[in-house]
Amino acid sequence: MSGTNNTGGATPPHYKIAVGSLNPVKIDAALEGFRSVFPSATFSATGVLANPGVDSQPLSDGVAFLGAWNRARHVFDLCPDANYWVGIQGGVQWDTYSLNTGEGKGDGGQLQAFSWIVVLGGDRGELMGKARTATHYLPSDMSHLMHFGYDLGLAHHQAHRGIDYNPTDGSVGLLTHGIYGRDESYLHAIILALIPHRNPTVAF
Ligand SMILES: O=P(O)(O)OP(=O)(O)OP(=O)(O)OC[C@H]1O[C@@H](n2cnc3c(O)ncnc32)[C@H](O)[C@@H]1O
Questions:
Q1: What CATH number labels 14-135+181-198?
Q2: What is the ipTM of this complex?
Q3: Which residue of 72, 122, 146, 150 has the fewest CB atoms within a 10 Å radius of its CB?
């Protein structure tokens, strides 16, 4: 993939990333993550509508991971000419360590919010990296609403009427007053999910 440019220097290799989402925050985070992990290459990223194969609001760690994996596999099928395939899936899970209820599950417990990221590479998508974003806890009024079927965005809207989150900051950005946004949380996890790709001779 490398050649020479008209100044005589080597042209850096270019790689295509296919992201299983039309959400610009996810696509931009994936692109930025690849660029920071592989600074001597160039990248372009395309978002594609991929099927997570799970509920739109996953309620467990495992289902959220499955959503990320399904998105990555689906975008692999849809974009065979890409070099990397990325699935990002948000989810929530009842805290098993909650001291509030002693049960840590169901209404009255605390909800953790996070996303899973799966990055596939290799000719057949056989090289997989995965990572979970940082976790934050949702306020109890939101957890209550989500217990009754609201998704995260709707629960925010309902619980904090008048203070809508912006898509880039997301839930975590609203709750940290803009110190740590959804974009940054995706970026950090993309970098971690690229560890096997950055170290292809190491077994994970
Ligand atoms: O278009 P896709 O890729 O599906 O992106 P999404 O924004 O819907 O995000 P996810 O499917 O990954 O997240 C699952 C649910 O959680 C919601 N969600 C995820 N992150 C959020 C955040 O930071 N703030 C508010 N809602 C969020 C989202 O709207 C979904 O209903």
A1: 3.90.950.10
A2: 0.94
A3: 122
